[in-house]
Amino acid sequence: KYPDISLVLIVKNEEKDLPRCLESFKDIVKEIVVVDTGSTDRTVEIAKSYGARVEFFEWTNDFAEARNVSLGYASCEWILRTDADEYIEEPEKAKLLHCVNSGVADIYLCPTVSKLKAGEQTVENVRLIRNHLGVVYHYPIHETVALSAAKLGLLQCLTNIEFLHSGYEFLEEGSSERKTERNISVCSQYLEKYPEDFYVRLVRGLLLLNTQRKADAISDLERGVKDIPDDASPVKYMGLAYIALCQQYVFEKRDIDLINILLDAQVDFNVYSCMMQFIGQVYCFNRGDWKRANKIFDWTLKRYTTKLTFSDVLFADKFNEVECLTLMAETCVLLKENDKARKYYLQAKKLKKNIREQSENQNSDKHYEDVDSFSAEQLRILAKTPKENLKYFETYSNILRAASKSELTAQDYLDLANCQIQINNLIFARKLIDESRLISTDLPFASNLESLIALKEKDTQKGLEKAIEAFIQDPGNEKYQQNVETVASILKMSPVEALRKTGLEWITSGKAQSGIFALMMYSKFQPDDQEIKSFLAKYLN
Length: 541
Hints:
Elements: E1 5-11, H1 18-25, E2 31-36, H2 43-49, E3 53-56, H3 63-72, E4 78-81, E5 86-87, H4 90-102, E6 107-116, E7 119-130, H5 146-152, E8 156-158, E9 163-165, H6 175-193, H7 198-209, H8 214-226, H9 236-251, H10 255-269, H11 272-286, H12 290-303, H13 310-315, H14 321-334, H15 338-359, H16 376-384, H17 391-405, H18 410-422, H19 426-439, H20 444-456, H21 460-473, H22 478-490, H23 495-508, H24 512-525, H25 530-540
Parallel strand pairs: 1-2, 1-4, 2-3, 6-8, 6-9
Antiparallel strand pairs: 4-7, 5-9, 6-7
Helix pairs in contact: 6-7, 7-8, 7-9, 8-9, 9-10, 10-11, 11-12, 12-14, 14-15, 14-17, 15-17, 16-17, 17-18, 18-19, 18-20, 19-20, 20-21, 21-22, 23-24
């Protein structure tokens, strides 16, 4: 006999998804509580057909308030919280029942897997709450029970029970942007009433980062971090805010601000090792100083005294011993110390597996993907076909894992450089391109990447020269041709005009061979240009 469970949902116009949701949970719950906030379709009718208790609540732009109202209607020993566009599959049901029967924790978090256009995204959300303990949600957006749980001294546990979320799978054009703007508006309304609320200000700052309002985002994040009280309970968005600010400072090369925010993070989270780890990333990725970065990561590893905690899983899994071991391995690859790199990769893999098993409280029958069992070639293929939306970071990691099993090729260096260009680490990208040319000089992709760097630095003329350099080396490559067209259009020229002009300039500036190639390419498009035809005939003779 398992403890009784109340399934609790907040809904509005969910007739499409609600049947699948309720169907997946109906066999393991004693009661279903549906709080409707104004449906005009068949949502209420469908809920009642499953025997649900349906209550009505007038929407107030406050998710926490609505959640708390729904919790108040639950009568069973445990509350299972979900949304209408979420569901579980059959194997997860037994694991869910095992959780409530174990008596280990008062609150359980489960990974929610969302299908996106770019792949999948997984986040941990509170799903099971022991009832009648006084747990409540706080904040109108990205509502959380973390403050309540900390105040009540409740134990939280991370599980491997997967909830599937289909809400992002078939989004209409612009719906994601509209949702972001709606959430920003909710935060703004709340902050008008409570301007000192650091949490909602941090959430708004993170939302603004998804728009083009970077200055407003940084302003919110900086003020929110400054306003965190000394007795604040760690919650997910506090850590995310520190991470976001650090990343913005790194991208903008605001080193003094970076050091100051890292010192603040040390005070708020006692993460001095994490702070040094981030500084190591700055040296590695922004400065291209792999040797110094390697020393900092080594120093950091020696000072990690505790393994990943529950709080780390919530807000700082990027700053932990697993990540540091991985970074150490990556810098070893770049320093051509492959034996050391393999050792650190294996240590990271083993530790990550141990952490997950411990945090799941031995509830897991999940098989871990053993990336290190793949061959170097398989890893390079994985790098070309990333599964999730963190495309460039996954590509980068898999290339370096491949290199730890063999050697970095010229193409590897260029693929790594491409990753760094995407996140504006242009100094590091240049260093990687230089490394590729030590292996081979016949690299049109290198010239194309240098064109992209020049464009990011607003040097359009150099961008054009490098784009043409790539194109004349590999004229059949459509991407290189498109890049020439793009850069030429910025300079208000046609691609053919750009070839002619650049070819002549190269010849007069001492780059005769490249200039001749450019003009020969031009002649294929404009065979009737007698001036260039005569020039080539004279020069080649």
